[in-house]
Amino acid sequence: MPGPISSATDLTRTGTRAIAIGLAAIVAILALAAFLLFVNLPDTNAFNAAIERLILENRDLTSPAELRLIEILSESGNTLSAVLVSYRGVIFVLLVFASALLITALVLVLALIALNRKLAQVQKAGIQVSSMVISRAERKVYLNDMELNLTEAAVETLAALAEARMDGEMLNGAQLEAVVSGKRESDCDEAAGATRIKRLRDSLGNQIVSELLVRNIARQGYTLAIDKDVIRMI
Q: Which of 22, 77, 122, 148 could be a cystine partner for 48, CB 3.0 to 4.6 Å?
């Protein structure tokens, strides 16, 4: 026992460490990208500084037309500075949004991986049923603490499978159809039994439960994947 427990603990720690490293890598990459982008963006005051330098170097520009040109250049510089500031804000918001999307995507992928592992474990172990009571008169099946209403055909199909399970047998499609319909097996075909199984699974509703409860063993037949001692017929 200590071996498996230690192994599971190590796997959990490794998974947690991988998640932390992945999140840190995403944040670091986006932070580096933001730093390089903002460093390489033009200075918001570069145009104004160039205009000021132009005025200082050409103090003899005194005609009305020249002064008007300088005024227009100054207004253009202020407008350009405002545009560059807004661009920086937009870029910052987009980077934050991209970070949130990447982190969310990573979390969802990890959640899907964990869910698939749990489903694989459930499928491997089978559904855990401590009690199954089939009531033909009420057309109901009591599965653990769940009460399921079935059609008459579904109840009869489930009852046939339950009786075969209690006898330690499997039923192929033709045998199942013969038991439920009362016909001779030679007069029944495999497809009819398969159809009854499909309708039973549809009546059970939950796809995972129905797939795990009613098993199809290749080249052998259909069976209930539960302990025969928990089955009761009323």
A: 77
